[in-house]
Structures are given as C-alpha cells and as structure tokens.
Protein: Alpha,alpha-trehalose-phosphate synthase [UDP-forming]
Organism: Lysobacter dokdonensis DS-58
Amino acid sequence: HAELRGDEIIVVSNREPYIHDLDQHGGARVRRPASGLVTAIEPVMRACSGTWIAHGSGTADRDVVDLHDRVAVPPDQPMYSLRRIWLTPEEEQGYYYGFANEGLWPLCHVAHVRPVFRESDWQTYRAVNQRFAEAVLREARTDDPVVLVQDYHLALVPALVREKLPQATILTFWHIPWPNPESFGICPWRREILLGLLGSTILGFHTKFHCKNFLETVDRFIEARIEHEHSVVAVAERETFVESYPISIEWPQPLEGDWASPSDCRRLVIERHGLPEHAIIGLGVDRFDYTKGIVERLNAVERMLEKYPSLIGRFVFVQVASPTRSSLDEYRAFQQQVERLSVRINSRFGAGRYQPVVFLAEHHDHAQLIELYRAADICVVTSLHDGMNLVCKEYVASRDDEQGVLVLSRFAGAAREMHEALIINPYHVEETADAIYRAARMSSGEQRERMISLRHTVRDFNVFRWAGRMLSDAARWRLRARVEERV
Ligand code: GDG
C-alpha cells in the first residue's frame, strides 16, 4: 500500500497458506487449506510481500522433504516468505484444539455448544502465543514494523509484541463474531484476553455490531477509557482504535480466464455424480463445522421435498464438507449426525439412481470448487453464526454468467452486505425450505437482476479494499504517532 511503502509487513496466524504433504509416492505435494482466513489474507500478501509466520501443519516428514523453517511462496511464483513454527503435539492439543477451539470458538459463536475451559489448555495457549510473539520479534528488522495479527488463536500476541516493540503498528483482525459481555464474561481469562488484544494499534471486526459488543465487554471487565464517538479504547494512555472492516475475496478471481463455461461445468458435475440430466442443483460448501448449520440445511431440503413433491427426482443437493478439527468429540458427533441425516433423506426420497443428497465429506481443490459453483443453480449458506462467510462471496464471484440464486443466513456477517440474496433464519425450517423452493423456481430474469447487484457489491468491496482500508488507517496512526513524538 502506497502510504506504507518501504515499511515491512509481518502477518502472523495459526494457519499456514501452503501445506506441504507427502503424496503416495513419497514426493512433496502442496495443498491449500480450507480456511476463510487464508482465502482472504493470501492475495493481500501476494500484493504486499513481506513475511507470514504460521504453524507448520504439513504431514510431510521433515527428513524426507526438505521442509525449511522458511520457504518462498506461492511455490510456483514466489512473492513473499513463509516462516513456520513447529508445535509439539501437546502444544497443538492445548493451544489449538483445547483453548482456541473448545474454548474461544464456541464462546464467540452462538451455536449453543458449551465452551470448555481447562487450566492446562490456557497455560499452553499462553506459552504458544509467547512463541508466536518471539517469532515476530525475530522477524522484525526495524523497531516499528507493521504486524498483522490474525484471529482468536493469537489474542495475547498484540500485547506481547507491544511490550518489546512499543513503536510497532499492530493491526489485529478478529475473524469470528464477538459476543455480548454476558456471553464473553464466562471465560475465566477474559481480562487477559482483552488486555492482550488491546496491545493492538487497530483492532478490526467484520461488523459494527461485533465492535459494539467488544467495547461493551471492555467497559464491563477492565479499567479503560472508552471514547465511543471515535471508537477508541485507552488503557493507561495506550490507545487502540476499534473499527469494522468487512472482509472479502479477491476480485477478479484467480485463473478466471481459464474457467470452463457454466454449461460445461454443469455437464461435468452431472456426469461425475450421476445426477439426473435436468437436475436442479443446490450446493453447500463448508468446513465440516457445527456453526455452519449443515443439519438445519438438510432438514430444510427434506422439508422442501416433503412439501413440494414435484421436485422429487429433479432436485439434488450437493454438500461439500471439508474435514476440520475432527479429533474433537463435539465435531465427530456432529459429523456423524449429518452423515446419518443425509442417509435418511436419501432412503426417504431416493429411487434407483436418484439420490437427493450427494454428500462429499472430503477436501476439494480450488478448481473443483469453482466447477461446482458454476454448475449450481442455488448456493445455500445457513450458518448459525458466522463472522462473515466467504463461500457466498465466492459463489457470486464465480457466476460471470449472472445466473444462480444465493440463499443466505441472516446470522452471517455477509447478510449485512448481500441484500439481494434470499435472506433466511436457518433455525426456521419452513422459511428455509420455502426459500430454496423459491430459488429453484426463480426466473432467469430475476436471477440476473439479483446476481448483477450482488456481483457489484463483491467486486467493489473486495479484499484489497479491506486491506487497503486497514493499512491506510494504520498509516494515519503512524503519522500521528510521529508528529506527537516531536511535540
Ligand atoms: C473464518 C470465519 C470468515 C471449504 N471447503 C474447501 C475449501 N473451502 C474454503 C471455501 C472458503 C473457506 O474455505 C471457508 O471460508 P468461510 O468464510 O466460509 O469460513 P471459515 O473458514 O470459518 O472462516 C468466517 C473468515 O474466517 C474470513 O474472515 O468469513 O466467518 O469463520 O474460501 O472456499 N477450500 C478448498 N477445499 C475445500 O474442500 N480448497
């Protein structure tokens, strides 16, 4: 970004953008993880360059594949540097699975899953946050780097970096919702988390509503001066600017020129999955996570077939569910429940080769997802709670034919921008079933009108604009700090 030219950018996140795995022949294979954070931040790093620090998660044996702590990425056309931190299985268990994903994840999402807080997980979370902060300090070549801290895994990093580099510009982005003070208040270490985050220069959330919840939580639990008018929190004279920056995706999409036509994609998808020739294709794409409302979505599909039997034999729902956190009980139980449900719907409405639910519980590569997006008549996003949700934006971006209907949960941050979608409450089965039915029958003209408008929104508010806003706010704060120093 122009105002920060010459300044170095360090991104720090749990998830790495490129994972090195071993293939069947023992060679290295590079995989892109299923992660909204990576989808959004990776194009920004390609544009800015710098260093990305993340947990090395590949299965490749480090002795077989020469996995350095630092690699240049993207592998085929290096543009920035990826610096890996190797966590022990115990560290990963306590910090990632434990505190972050059994504690903070359910704490911040209203999905009615009870958070689990263990003292030992918290201790590991603290220790691992310290390791990430040390890596930032090692990477910093000046005393005022621009550090982009990502997400709930690293809530303590901003204050840890601030302590050693008081001049650093620390931009923290919280990719998940921030709940109200009553909900957040059950976390035994709420003070530590809040003070950790308030080491940031700028703290970003997807929506104004999450910012408001955060400010109210600070007000409730720590001593701080809050200037609501300017969205600033000061703890002992150190100020943090709290602002909403709705995240998005790259526009144009990578390799857009090489895509097969929607009708070819449709033919390929119909062949590959043995769908009826004139199928109406509904699509869901998610990490296999209980916050994404997959049970509610399948219940709605079932109800729709029950209520509108003319669609039996024609309507097919394809659900991509990429494996995630499956070592946790809560996830395994949920994943089994979804699998049972899709078997039930198929035995109820399927006949011969016709299966109304095609369930694909495996990781797909990007090209396969694009093919599905371009083949689908309807994309259904039913998150029970979601910071933003990028799947709905990817669907819209991949429809340059201006066809297709988006059904979108009102509990996803994206619903605040994507007004031309059919907005639903996923807890309301009837409403969701009716919306999918309406989508299945929508005229091509109405689809076009809605899609054109949605595409304008995603194009104009793309991820470069998201990063641009955060970085220009950062540049403004740096300038202000320098001027104030001189006084
Ligand atoms: C968090 C917040 C926020 C899914 N399956 C595969 C695959 N994906 C990709 C999708 C999309 C991404 O994963 C999922 O993004 P979401 O935004 O829907 O969700 P989270 O991962 O929960 O992300 C979310 C986001 O951070 C950004 O701030 O929007 O609210 O929860 O890009 O396409 N990708 C591949 N194979 C799959 O099988 N390659």
Observations:
- The chain is about 40% helix and 20% strand.
- The CA atoms of residues 49 and 80 lie 5 Å apart.
